[in-house]
Amino acid sequence: MGDDEVEKLLRRGGDWLAEHPERELIANRYLKHQRRLVRDALEQLLGEDDEEQEEAREKSAQEEEQAEARLSLNEQRLGAVMAVLKESGARRVVDLGCGEGRLVQALLKEKQFEQITGMDVSHRALEIAQERLKLDRLPEKQKKRIQLLNGSLMYRDERLAGFDAAALVEVIEHLDPPRLAACERVVFEAARPPLVVLTTPNAEYNVHWENLAPGKFRHKDHRFEWTRAEFHAWAQGMAARFGYGVRFLPIGPEDAATGPPTQMAVFSLAGQNVAKGGSQ
After folding, report:
1. 166 lies in which domain range?
2. pTM for this structure?
3. Which of 1, 9, 48, 162 places its Cα 20 to 30 Å from the Cα of 248?
């Protein structure tokens, strides 16, 4: 693989590749995950407009974190997810939509987790995750426990098979309905881990955000935010359709009228013992 393959990709991709929602995945696979080549291809492909969009998304994410800072919701979410994963006895965990690697970093601190994989569609997010984890400076034994993958939840991926547990932390609300349906099949039908831990915002709690106008979402990239009833109905339907049981847990300070700021669903595959490696 060399620079000539980058030129070939750009020449054959033409205008359609720049507009394709999975352009990063396509570039990574075509260029055999050679980071320098992929970065060069994307930089030439995206241009200034997409760089501005990426900056806007990063700014929006920062604004969301600032809005939640007084409640430390991000830390509470990670703590709640970690507690469920540790209690389950899972040894091999995949963080789907891992972003900048916060959950992966927390999992690395626990010896229980022997194999930790983070997957995200954003090439830039994975670069940040690699820097956060200091992969180039980790001892070899620690480095072997971690794997970062560029991939999309829209397509079945054999690399997602064989895990004891999967986590989707604040992921589904970023997906349009058709994409959410594809994600459901990828996770619960194809990968089918014995345990799935999933969190999403509780729309009812949004009234507590002083600067959030009625009907607006917490993040500009959110496609929806569900009430507790909507989330429960979706999760119970998913569990029934794919043969899982489901239980619900609140995350953050609960309000009597609106409930918690974040909702969690824990899906358990019937007949599988996570602690004994039921996914093997």
Report:
1. 71-276
2. 0.74
3. 162
